[in-house]
Amino acid sequence: MKHLPYLSRRTRWAASMAALVLAIPAFAAVLKVDTSKSQVNIVFKQMNVPVDAKFKKFSANIDYNAAKPESSKANVEIELNSFDLGDAEYNKEVLKKEWFNAAQFPKASFTSTAMKAAGAGKLDVSGTLAIKGKTSNVSFPVTIKQEGGKQVFDGALPIKRLTYNIGEGEWKDTSMVADEVTIKFHVVTQP
């Protein structure tokens, strides 16, 4: 009977350690994105003039573990109807079949397949990008910094619009709208 309290303390210690071990992944849990401070933009050239546009609605799930970045994951969905070129007529035009075909493909998405540390505050991210029913493998660098208890992720992903059939028919002509497009993102998480 004298051993029972010893077992009880040992059992409590084991339970406490198990709870601590189970709580550690919570620190690497999915981060809540502050969409009011985050943005997804695209930059392209039309008739050799740079154009900057943005997507007003998107969601991001980021499961980031700074101590073990290779276990991190990210998923982003962009609502194509939220595309904003700064002009209502242009916005309406790019949602048509020749461009985004937003009626049939309302969302674009990115899903990470690998993240690797690339130095202090830097990651190399790989994954799949799906736009307009076309999916391809992509890789790009991301910088991460802390700002007042928030994680901030910044990056730029260069793509070719024709890979995703963005600009069909006469719009395949890259002398009017360049094939090169850069997707830029600034994602701020809540503390």
Radius of gyration: 22 Å
Terminus-to-terminus distance = 50 Å
Average of per-residue pLDDT values: 87
Biggest sheet, strands in spatial order?
1-4-5-7-8-9-10-11-2-3-6
Number of domains: 1
Sheet with the most strands? 11 strands, antiparallel
Shape: globular
Question: What name is given to the CATH topology?
Answer: Lipocalin
Low-confidence stretches: 1-28
CATH class value: Mainly Beta
Instruction: Please identify the structural class as seen in this structure.
Output: mainly beta
CATH architecture: Beta Barrel
**Fraction of residues in helices?**
10-25%
CATH superfamily, by name, is Lipid/polyisoprenoid-binding, YceI-like
- Strand proportion: over 45%
Q: What is the tally of helical segments? A: 2
- One letter per element, helices H and strands E, the order comes to HEEEEEEHEEEEE
Q: Count the E strands.
A: 11
Domain Lipid/polyisoprenoid-binding YceI-like: 30-190
Organism: Undibacterium rugosum
Protein name: YceI family protein
Keywords: Signal
Helix and strand topology:
Layout: H1 3-23, E1 30-31, E2 39-46, E3 49-55, E4 58-63, E5 73-79, E6 83-84, H2 88-94, E7 107-117, E8 122-131, E9 134-147, E10 150-160, E11 177-188
Antiparallel strand pairs: 1-4, 2-3, 2-11, 3-6, 4-5, 5-7, 7-8, 8-9, 9-10, 10-11
